[in-house]
Write a structure and sequence with these properties.
319 residues; mainly alpha; 14 helices; globular; oxidoreductase activity; ComplexI_Subunit1; Respiratory chain complex I subunit 1 family protein; transmembrane helix
Length: 319
């Protein structure tokens, strides 16, 4: 009974659930505000993502007559629940060690694509031609950015593992770095860190990799027909995924703690997530334009994948 209550707390309150939702929406607000200021615009208020959720939750949900209604409703719920579980697995160094003993890295490898799959289900179910095009683009994009992620996770597991190099526990990754130094400061792991930075805007659908939505071309693509609470759920899923991806980056490369107890380390974790978002999402989407689908696929095969394999090779040599 106690274990069930503990897991429910971690799923619904911290580090997943309420904490991840609030942090994700706040990070999105800072992202939009900073991006606007870099482009010499005033931009929306930092709390605008919260206002958007409140507004959408009060709107009517309109479902096209030709849509597959069951899948149309299921898709946003599927993506949201997948990210709720993923957020629970992310350690907050100095505060929460993560769900130890679960092979968390492998679980996250399966959970992270769920929002993209939900996005594709939404586009397929909407009966919109824009949704169909966005679905095909999302599929190509997902295949492209999943390759470097897989190699990065394998490299980290080899680096943090024992003699057999088979450790897939995020808690062990954090523990190893506390004893031996952050991977982000290791020469052999810097290529993997750069590859992970390239993975982030792809999985978040941010410019220059926002191909599936591409407002000037596809008018939000698979989300074109969504409104009301269902659209709000997609926005909440995106906020959760932002926290999961940033938290995973912090855990894999910079999980160090500071003196001052749990509260200080919680603030330190949030700051590191913010800085990672600033470097990998905000500045990149401010300074670049959208790539074509073929350019995106070639980019991930040529650069992040090669960098990840370089770190993997160096790690194997050092082992």
């Amino acid at each position: 009974m106690l274990d069930m209550l503990t897991h429910s707390f971690h799923l619904l309150i911290f580090p997943g659930g309420l904490f991840a939702l609030l942090l994700g929406l706040l990070l999105k607000g800072f992202d939009r505000k900073i991006c606007a200021r870099l482009q010499r615009r005033v931009g929306p208020p930092i709390l605008q993502p919260f206002y958007d959720i409140i507004k959408l939750s009060q709107k009517e949900t309109i479902i096209p007559d030709t849509a597959n209604k069951a899948i149309f409703k299921f898709a946003p719920v599927f993506g949201f629940m997948g990210m709720m579980v993923a957020a629970m697995l992310i350690p907050v160094p100095g505060v929460w060690n993560g769900a130890t003993g679960l092979g968390d890295m492998l679980m996250l490898l399966y959970l992270l694509p769920i929002p993209a799959i939900a996005f594709m289900l939404a586009g397929s179910a909407s009966s919109s031609p824009y949704g169909a095009i966005g679905t095909s683009r999302e599929m190509v994009l997902m295949f492209a950015y999943e390759i470097p992620l897989l190699v990065v996770l394998l490299t980290v597991a080899l680096k943090a593992g024992g003699a057999d190099g088979s450790e897939f526990s995020l808690a062990q990754v954090v523990s190893y770095q506390h004893a031996n130094g952050s991977f982000g400061l290791s020469l052999s792991m810097i290529p993997a860190f750069i590859a992970f930075l390239c993975f982030i805007p792809g999985t978040m659908g941010a410019v220059p990799f926002d191909l599936p939505e591409a407002e000037p071309e596809l008018l939000e693509g698979p989300l074109l027909e969504y409104s009301g609470p269902l659209l709000a759920m997609f926005n909440l899923t995106s906020a959760l995924k932002l926290v999961v991806v940033m938290g995973l980056g912090v855990t894999l490369f910079f999980p160090g703690t500071i003196p001052g107890g749990a509260l200080a380390n919680l603030a330190w974790f949030i700051f590191k997530c913010f800085m990672l978002m600033l470097v990998s999402v905000t500045i990149v989407r401010t300074a670049t334009g959208r790539l074509r689908t073929d350019q995106t696929f070639k980019f991930y095969l040529k650069y992040p994948s090669v960098l990840a394999y370089v770190s993997l090779g160096l790690t194997l040599l050092l082992k």
